[in-house]
Amino acid sequence: QSPTNSAAAEQMAQDAAEFMTRDYTAIWEDRFVPKLLYANEAANNYMTKRMALQILSTVLLTRTNYNVMVRFVASARNCKVILLLLRHTSPHITLDAFHVFKVFVANPHKPLEVVKMLKDNQIKLSTYLQGLHAEKAQNDAQFRDEKALIIATIQAL
User: Fold this and answer.
1) In 10 A of CB 30, how many CB atoms?
2) What is the average pLDDT across 106-133?
3) How far apart are CA 157 and CA 83, in angstroms?
4) What processes in GO biological process is this protein linked to (predicted)?
């Protein structure tokens, strides 16, 4: 990639991050989460829910979107939505939800509401996560390590 294209891509990423931060409530709280992840007609569509989780995961794990990530994982409401999606019947959706959930657990500055939610469900979560995608954990060392770290973090609360 040429330096010009790289600089343009970085500028676009920065502009997008500024937009998502500035209009956080309108984008994430009013539209994205309730319309694409809650149990409603649009969100009940498998592909809609799956793509929404993949987009969310990408946004949260992109460095330029740090402010969006911090605000998103500070919400107990968002954590509850992701916890519900971890129990979805589709293994693909549960895997995508896990990638978002680990951001909540890894947050070193968890709000008390999120900590309480995780502590109140500590045993259930640990048990559930141990069995989550067991086949994948056998063949994917990174997934196995991430899952073990998330379980250990939850148990240490």
Assistant:
1) 12
2) 95
3) 17
4) intracellular signal transduction
pLDDT band for position 37 (50/70/90)?
A: confident
Question: In the block, which residue shows the tokens 């498998």?
Answer: 46
Could you give the percent of the chain with pLDDT greater than 70? 94
Other CB atoms within 10 A of residue 109 CB: 8
pLDDT of residue 125: 96
Nearest CA-CA partner of 157 in 128, 126, 131, 132: 126
Query: For residue 7, what pLDDT band results from cuts at 50, 70 and 90?
Result: confident
